[in-house]
Amino acid sequence: MKLEIYYLKRIRFLSLLGLILMICTNALSQTSRPNIIFIMSDDHATSAISAYGSHLTEVFKTPNIDRLANEGVKLENCFVTNAICTPSRATILTGKYSHKNGVYTLLGKIRDQENVASVLQQNDYMTTVIGKWHLHTEPYGFDDFDVLPGQGKYYNPKFKNKAKLKRSFKLDRGEQYEGYSTDIIGDKAVNWMKNRAADKPFFLMCHFKAPHRPWDPAPRYKDFLKDVKVPEPFNLHDDNSGQGKWAQSAFNKIGKDMQAFDIGTEIPEGLTGEELTSFKYQHFIKRYLACCKAVDDNVGKLLEYLDESGLAKNTIIIYTSDQGFFLGEHGWYDKRLIYEEGLRMPFVVRYPNVIMANKEVKNLVVNTDFAPTFLDFAGVDIPEDMQGVSLKPILISKKKIKDWRKSVYYRYWMHMTDVGVPAHYGIRTERYKLTYYYGLPLGMRGTARRIDLYNKESGMIKPTPSEWEFFDLKKDPFEMNNLYGNPKYDKVIDELKEQLKTQKNSLGDSDETYPELQKQTAKDW
Prior knowledge:
This protein has 525 residues and is of the alpha/beta class. It contains 16 helices and 20 strands. The N and C termini lie far apart (86 Å).
């Protein structure tokens, strides 16, 4: 009898132990899945991140972003597929090109499309987006959101909070907060992590407005670099004669087009030519870098919380920008063009004990790859309609992955009157870049005047030419000499045209110019 009682108690003990182990295993399986923090700024050029190195590095440092690069992986060749804010954000969320997710321009709406957040949400992740959203419709797939209306403001901004919406997302104007946008967003991100449900992994998208135009610095940085002469890019005074006619027509020249409100000071009378360009550049770049400095401060704020909370080891943290930005190269500011400074995105990622520290990856990467990568690390199936590929293999491998894409496809859809950049598409390989500008829509007289296509007598626009550009990036990394038409490269160019055609077809894009997009005016943008 005593023996039976002994065995009965032992069975009960073992059953209870098994139950406890099962509960612990389930809890461990949940918490062992990595948290993912995706930090994205707006218009942050790689040249303004000291980990990447540039002419600015001697006067400007980003120690917190650099820390991510030093403790993780830095992608050297990460590119946007459509260098403008709203389309890039839609691509990052959906893992699809503009012609597949339907967001071609700044007016595009993502609506209730399946995206990386909604897929993670369905797989028991807590999801939130804080900061700049800029997709016009209510964030879908997020348990919480706290986002800026439209572009948002730098000082005393308003936020639309999911729990506090009084009307529809579109109509609600949000709640105003005192302070500087970048700091408020950083604080909100930390507070969300502190108050989240601790029994689930989380996906946090922390999106800063900075350093987007109008480059309003935090009050603490209003005199940032005041007495410093910031180095100029060697081609600040480029007359663009080495580029094609369309590149020469762009309305984003610092000397000609940047206004007093952009640089935060009055422009002295009598300044012309290179002196005027240099004057504007110095004031513009200091305001821009001051905005970047506050972003770096807040990256540090998030890193500090991860360290103090013990979350760092099981958290993937990424820093990127929605596209690149010209900081005086070719005399330009803004983005849009397929040139390297607008095309290249920063991307640094840290995941302790999984991703090697202080590693550089040169494989060609595009922003359609971001969503599949997050899902792959989370152990979640990647939807078949996502067009990107997971970067996990190249991030965790100790050796260079040779079986990888050899080219990237780019298409910019917006015929913009106020910046003079026509729609174009192109292909970028490890060595070469081929671009096709496919013309100017009717009615765009502002751009036509700039490039001498407007007939004053008849009031009509002359036939609008298409144009090709070709650069050998190995010999000409700064894209100073358009070699299209050079007989030496005829064979290479023919091969690239075939590759471009193949890329377009394989991605499901067509030669349509989408005339309904061209009818929109600059005011619409």
